């Protein structure tokens, strides 16, 4: 079992819809949880990070972590075609190494 | 600051040749990381530096791979005797020591071994 599991998609939603992206993780020692966005043939771009459980909001993006169920979520409101990308969830424990999921490919349909 | 830069962006080489990649981190970042990403996968950790010191290397990093950060600024990743399995995107990231969870990535170097 990989330490961070993520459905690869693709996930297609109409423009303006709310997008829900999810991951699970297995290592209870993970303390930080990150979401990265990666456009084709580009490097990953840090969207948000969260420490421990809880919610964090930044504009149209909300990250949510539930440590009791080891579940990580990213919500995108009012989705735009420019949000079409691969979204990578990631976790980090005390050794400062980031473990990434495989990424979910998202398509926003105009 | 323009962020993390990597050079070259693309490299095509023949099997058995040596290649070297360069990464310039964000100037105030003491930590520098190397990752490898293959198609359909997330980035996988290879190694990282704090200033000049290489603090950890992944088991993925075979003896053919070596990384340096001689003056605590830019870093190089060398692959000797390349194999077709080395074909991947090599990503560099940097962070502050106090915020290792906040890593900023460069555009990557895409390596193709023929």
What does it look like?
The complex is a heterodimer of chains A (110) and B (114). Chain A has 110 residues and is mainly beta. Helices cover 0% and strands 56% of the residues of chain A. Chain A has no helices and 11 strands. In chain A, strands 2, 4, 5, 9, 10 and 11 form a 6-stranded mixed beta sheet that branches. Chain A has a 5-stranded antiparallel beta sheet with strand order 1-3-8-7-6, with no helix packed on it. In chain A, a hairpin with a 4-residue loop joins strand 7 and strand 8. Chain A is globular, with a radius of gyration of 13 Å. Chain A starts with a strand and ends with a strand. The mean pLDDT of chain A is 94. With 114 residues, chain B is mainly beta. Chain B has no helices and 11 strands. Chain B has strands spanning 5-7, 10-13, 19-24, 31-37, 44-50, 53-57, 65-68, 75-79, 88-95, 104-105, 109-113. In chain B, the strands form 2 sheets. In chain B, strands 2, 4, 5, 6, 9, 10 and 11 form a 7-stranded mixed beta sheet that branches. A 4-stranded antiparallel beta sheet of chain B has the order 1-3-8-7, with no helix packed on it. Chain B starts with a strand and ends with a strand. The model of chain B has no long low-confidence stretch (mean pLDDT 95). Classes of the chains: A mainly beta (110), B mainly beta (114). The interface between A and B is medium-sized, with 26 and 23 residues.
Which terms would index this structure?
heterodimer; A: 110 residues; mainly beta; six-stranded mixed β-sheet; five-stranded antiparallel β-sheet; 11 strands; 0% helix; globular; B: 114 residues; seven-stranded mixed β-sheet; four-stranded antiparallel β-sheet
SSE map:
The complex is a heterodimer of chains A (110) and B (114).
Chain A: E1 4-6, E2 11-14, E3 19-25, E4 32-38, E5 45-51, E6 54-58, E7 61-66, E8 71-76, E9 85-92, E10 98-100, E11 104-109
Parallel strand pairs in A: 2-11
Antiparallel strand pairs in A: 1-3, 3-8, 4-5, 4-9, 6-7, 7-8, 9-10, 9-11
Chain B: E1 5-7, E2 10-13, E3 19-24, E4 31-37, E5 44-50, E6 53-57, E7 65-68, E8 75-79, E9 88-95, E10 104-105, E11 109-113
Parallel strand pairs in B: 2-11
Antiparallel strand pairs in B: 1-3, 3-8, 4-5, 4-9, 5-6, 7-8, 9-10, 9-11
């Amino acid at each position: 079992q990989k330490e961070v599991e993520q459905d690869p998609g693709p996930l297609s939603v109409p423009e303006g819809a709310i997008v829900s992206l999810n991951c699970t993780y297995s290592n209870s020692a993970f303390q930080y949880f990150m979401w990265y966005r990666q456009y084709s043939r580009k490097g990953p771009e840090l969207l948000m990070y969260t420490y421990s459980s809880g919610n964090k909001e930044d504009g149209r993006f909300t990250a949510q972590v539930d440590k009791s169920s080891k579940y990580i979520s990213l919500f995108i409101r009012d989705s735009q075609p420019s949000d079409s990308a691969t979204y990578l969830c990631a976790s980090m424990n005390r050794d400062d190494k980031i473990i990434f999921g495989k990424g979910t490919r998202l398509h926003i349909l105009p | 600051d323009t962020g993390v830069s990597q050079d070259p962006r693309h490299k095509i080489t023949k099997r058995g040749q040596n290649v070297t990649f360069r990464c310039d981190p964000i100037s105030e970042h003491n930590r520098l990381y190397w990752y490898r990403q293959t198609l359909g996968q997330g980035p996988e950790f290879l190694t990282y530096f704090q200033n000049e010191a290489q603090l950890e290397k992944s088991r993925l990093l075979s003896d053919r791979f070596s990384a340096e950060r001689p003056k605590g600024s830019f870093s190089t990743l060398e692959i000797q005797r390349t194999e077709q399995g080395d074909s991947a995107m090599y990503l560099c990231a940097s962070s502050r020591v106090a915020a290792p969870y906040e890593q900023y990535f460069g555009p990557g170097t895409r390596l193709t071994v023929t």
